[in-house]
Amino acid sequence: MEQRLHRIQVMTRGRGLVDVTDQLCRWLGSQGIATGLLTIWCRHTSASLLVQENASPDVQADLEAFLSRLVPDGGNGRYRHEDEGPDDMPAHIRAALTQTQLSIPVEGAQPVLGTWQGVYLYEHRTSPHRRELVLHLLGEASQR
Question: What is the pTM of this model?
Answer without folding.
Answer: 0.93
